Amino acid sequence: MRESILTIPVNEIFEKKCGCPVCAMRDELEQHAVEYIMGAAMMEPDVRIETNKSGFCKEHFEQMRACKNRLSLALMLQTHLQELQKTVFTEKGFFESKDSKSRKTTERISKVVNDCFVCAKIEWGFTRWLTNMFDLYKREREFRELFSQQQFICLPHYKALMQKCDSDMDKSVKNEFREVCTKLVKNYLDELEKDVSHYCKMYDYRNTGKDADWGNSKDSIERAIKFLTTR
């Protein structure tokens, strides 16, 4: 398989054959973005301008809070809150009605609440990763084999792949790609359903005792949630 700076990150994820490869890439992009913003980038003026305007979602605030450098987070919060004071609760529009001012304030708050610097970075990298993956799938027979050997594709990322396949995948391999993805999802769904059902059966008094055979069911709840939500 021919390697390049564009295909190496894709191959490295798929070669692990562990879990949903799309989740793995998302997680890797997320980790890099959080480490980036909590590191030296925090002091870069261009980055601070972006974070002051957009802020972060709850999930990424929690990941940043778990990092050791709490001062970096405090400094970003300081200037982000100052930006909110200047742009959201501005006193401009002296002659505007109270309803108009209230509507504009609500719109500004909605923009801040719905934006996240880390989410935007993940989305930017994720789109390019998928484009490279689709191109690799079209060109390399070995990668198509590697793709078919994955453990599973989670349900939300299956939906994302199917949607992107419709617009971006080359026609020569589009149907094959759909079939492979669907097989990975359905096979794992069957496995999960059996494991969760077995977990439920193990609470029957007839299945208790020292020699109770839980099989692969003990972590079936966690695996089912990850399959259904990507998390």
List keywords for this structure.
mainly alpha
Summarize the structure.
This protein is mainly alpha-helical and 231 residues long. It is built from eleven helices and no strands.
Please tell me about this protein's structure.
- Helix content is 71%, strand content 0%.
- The chain is mainly alpha-helical.
- The protein has 2 domains: 115 residues, no CATH class; 78 residues, no CATH class.
- α3 crosses α5.
- The longest helix has 31 residues.
- It is globular and about 65 Å long.
- The chain starts with 7 loop residues before the first helix and ends with a helix.
- The mean pLDDT is 87.
How many distinct domains? 2
Could you tell me how far the N terminus lies from the C terminus, measured between alpha carbons in angstroms?
31 Å
* Arithmetic mean of pLDDT: 87
* Strand portion: under 5%
Envelope shape: globular
**Main beta-sheet annotation:** none
Instruction: Tell me the number of helical segments per DSSP (H or I, 4 or more residues long).
Output: 11
Order of helices and strands, N to C? HHHHHHHHHHH
Cα radius of gyration in angstroms: 23 Å
> Helix content range of the residues, please?
over 70%
Assign the structural class, choosing from mainly alpha, mainly beta, alpha/beta, alpha+beta, or little secondary structure. mainly alpha
Low-confidence stretches: none
Total beta strands: 0
